[in-house]
Model the fold of this input.
Amino acid sequence: MIKNWKLALGLGAGFWAIMFIGVSAFMVMPIAVLWQRILEIILAVLASFILSRIYFKKYPSDLKEALALGIFWLVISAVLDLLITIQYVKADGTYLDGLKSFYGMWSLWVSFVLTLISIIATAKITHGGQLMKSQNTTPLPMPPIPPKV
Done:
């Protein structure tokens, strides 16, 4: 399972904060809604890749642990969304209207899936915390230094 709960919790909250600020910024940009949704998905993938790389660099993990970390981050995000984000989405409607509006967006579900894939891929790429090393790790011999005359 998760090896460092404090770090995982902190990075999960950081993931939510990055997404909250990023999505808020995209909402005020004068671009089409489709492009906003695409940028949100790209942000989720990049944020999850960078933050999971920080985690896996210190705590190497396999596929199951990476999946557990991704689900943990999504649960943290869901709790923070239920407490904070829904308040902004519901506007003048009820809390239930906000839930339907927020969780009814296709881009949210796509970003959930791609976030999990990104975290799992990061665990695999880092090979147990170590970025891929070259096959030849022996140092090359140095040429002899001629004596000074």
Q: What stands out?
A: The helical segments are 5-27, 33-58, 63-89, 95-103, 106-125. The chain has a mean pLDDT of 87. Residues 5-125 form one domain.
